[in-house]
Amino acid sequence: MGCLVVKVKMPTSATGMRRTADSDFPLVSPRLTQRGAIARGFSLIELLVAVLIIVLLTGVVSLNVGRGGADLGLEGEVRHLSGLLAFASAEAGLSAADHGLFIGLNSEGDEPRYQGIWMRRFDQGWAAPRGSAEVFAALDLAEGYELRLSLEGQPDLEFVFYEPELKPVPQIMTWAGGEMTPGYLEWLDVRTGDLLYRLEWDLLGRMRLLPRGVADDEN
What we know:
The protein is α+β, with helices and mostly antiparallel strands. The protein has 2 helices and 12 strands; from the N terminus they run ββααββββββββββ.
């Protein structure tokens, strides 16, 4: 669509000098220009807010359905973690700082328990994020299950206790450029060792939730 061009005779300045004899410029509505700037400037923030809403909703679902059955409770946990990882990835891009999740042991025994600690890379190293504290709170993971984490080039990583003084590095990283460390996290039955759920993600952060490690279209 053509742009309307208006020829304007520029007035003489106070010093007597004429800036331009004739000036051609497109007639553009300032309101349209403002709208375009707002859309460009806030699109990433709007995405971050949308992901945050999804994370909060999946957290509520996880708490509610966990009382209705072990399978539904596990699915709620997996979906909630998936949403949090997506939020961490968006936050990494918005803040231009790498984020990550450290998964460590919370207790030992016949039924090990795990915790997830969110971290952000600062100039001094990895530490807890300073913003979104409610979203990036510590996670109690896989109560009653066994976890198995495998990353590209690092299969079957061993879980250790979280000790801040040792300055641990998160296993699952979301880079500021939008990528993630490819891999998957599995939930296993403690008694039988059967695979119950797998959450996997690729380099671009695309995630798949696989009940018993099988995609729906493969059933």
